[in-house]
Write a structure and sequence with these properties.
Length: 468
């Protein structure tokens, strides 16, 4: 017997839950999907008439919301009733790295997952399939299972549950495409019937040979392993970018030469300011924690190095800016182009820009920050309020300011630092920018995207990652 799924509830309306459920709703018109979140403001934005106000920016998302919202896709704060009605529940809540206590700085904080599992245990009323969607340390399904099983004893009407792991491999900025055309769908579980129920949903648009089924733990570990491998490629190319600068080699040429080897491939070998986003660092930290837990010290140290290179790359960029600007940036004006961790998203979680801006401000620079999608509110969360106005701090402390376009940001600056590869930065009018900058003027392009020749012909000094 497998269960026919008519109602889905997704707990967590974030970067994973929102786009995933939107695509599911578009592909499965006969399934009612309720996305619930205990943050009323987030739900208000998901329901706003003006689709420009959706809480997350993701290309292609607006049109799906316009098509499905109110038909078979609903956003609400009514967690309890939607759990009661659901045949299948996705857990898509946040799982940040623990800030304190055992495993602080490494293990994932499972408070939100546990809270979601307890809510399901309390309100579930029939047989329900619970699907882990959030990025989780391996064996989290065990925790969820224990909480759900204990519900059978505590609550008289309680439901029975199957647990599946169905990790998300979507990359922000390309999420809708990744969901529409996944490389693979991974489903881990113990119950064949539950696996078939979820598989049948994906079969609406994904070919059967792309659906991989495994046991629960393999599925959970595969997610961490995939992200660790990707992050490792970024750290590898970033480490070589430094060697190129020192030796006179050119990383763009090295990249081409190695990327044409079909065993290596040309994806995920672009040097940059370091990887960001909500997954890579967290997943590697989880891996390191897990390896240490099982006494695999060498393995833990190996993966730890991927993170070390990432931290070093950010520090390295700050030091280069410092040296090129004659060893002092106190009171110098610097424009920051791009603040999100990558292009096509408004997400700034773990963005290298946060650390690099902090370092520049601590050295006394006055920053003018421009990003096409990141709001001033988000900058305030990431950088704190403008330090210039804090009288406690001495004059050597710098400041930051929000600007609404790159040309305004560049006015009166000594340097521009490009941190995110937004398309518009490829087409900047360097003639106009250069006339408004202070001289000698510098551009530090950490993503190798600017029109190098045009910027140079307008008298700007240029530093490009991996080329020096
Ligand atoms: C990642 C995984 O790709 C996805 O499968 C998983 O489910 C979640 O984590 P995401 O963090 O959204 O997705 O973005 P991704 O495109 O993987 O980029 C991560 C970081 O690596 C970004 O900061 C990006 O700028 C950086 N990166 C990526 C590089 O510096 N160079 C590259 O060549 C590729
Ligand atoms: P992700 O990138 O993993 O989607 P986000 O932080 O963008 O992470 O989204 C997670 C969402 O989960 C947040 O909007 C948060 O309010 C929601 N959430 C966390 N715990 C609960 C809960 N117990 N009930 C409902 N929603 C929750």
């Amino acid at each position: 017997m497998n269960f026919s799924i008519k109602k889905i509830c997704c707990i967590g309306a974030g970067y994973v839950g929102g786009p995933t459920m939107a695509v599911l709703a578009e592909k499965c018109e006969n399934i009612q999907i309720n996305v619930v979140d205990n943050n009323p403001e987030r739900i208000k934005f998901w329901n706003s008439d003006d689709l420009k106000n959706l809480p997350i920016y993701e290309p292609g998302l607006e049109s799906i919301i316009a098509k499905c919202r109110g038909k078979n896709l609903h956003f609400s704060t009514d967690v309890e009733n939607n759990i009661k009605d659901a045949d299948m529940i996705f857990i898509s809540v946040n799982t940040p790295t623990k800030k304190g206590g055992i495993g602080a700085g490494q293990a994932s904080d499972l408070t939100f997952v546990e809270a979601a599992a307890r809510l399901i245990a309390k309100h579930g009323q029939k047989h329900t399939i619970v699907v882990e969607k959030s990025t989780l340390p391996i064996r989290t399904a065990d925790t969820i299972k224990q909480i759900l099983t204990s519900a059978n004893q505590k609550y008289p009407n309680s439901a029975t549950f199957d647990i599946l792991s169905n990790p998300e491999f979507l990359a922000e900025g390309n999420a809708i495409n990744d969901l529409n055309n996944p490389d693979r769908i991974l489903i881990g579980g113990e119950s064949e019937d539950a696996i078939t129920s979820l598989k049948n949903i994906y079969l609406n648009w994904v070919h059967e040979n792309k659906i991989i089924t495994t046991n629960l733990w393999s599925s959970e570990l595969s997610k961490l392993a995939a992200n660790a491998f990707l992050a490792q490629r970024v750290s590898s190319i970033n480490s070589l970018s430094a060697l190129c600068e020192a030796s006179g080699a050119d990383i763009s040429e090295v990249k081409k030469a190695i990327g044409t080897d079909s065993r290596i491939g040309n994806k995920f070998i672009s040097p940059g300011p370091g990887f960001g986003g909500s997954c890579f660092k967290k997943d590697i930290l989880n891996l390191v924690y897990l390896c240490n837990f099982y006494g695999l010290r060498e393995v833990a140290e190996y993966w730890g190095k991927v993170l070390e290179i990432n931290t070093w790359q950010k520090q390295r960029i700050t030091e280069i800016i410092f040296q090129k600007l004659f060893g002092t940036i106190t009171c110098k004006n610097i424009a920051i182009f791009g603040f999100s961790f990558k292009s096509n998203t408004n997400d700034t979680r773990e963005s290298p820009a946060i650390e690099i801006c902090h370092q520049l401000i601590n050295e006394g620079a006055n920053l003018k920050i421009y990003d096409p999608r990141v709001s001033i509110k988000q900058l305030e969360k990431d950088l704190g309020l403008n330090t210039k106005h804090d009288k406690e701090l001495g004059p050597s402390n710098g400041s930051w300011k929000f600007t609404t376009d790159s040309y305004k940001a560049a006015e009166g600056t000594d340097a521009i630092v490009i941190l995110t590869e937004w398309e518009e930065f490829k087409h900047l009018d360097w003639k106009s920018i250069s006339t408004n900058m202070r001289s000698p003027s510098w551009v530090f392009d950490t993503r190798s995207i600017i029109n190098f020749k045009e910027a140079k012909s307008n008298g700007i000094n240029i530093w490009i990652m991996g080329r020096g």
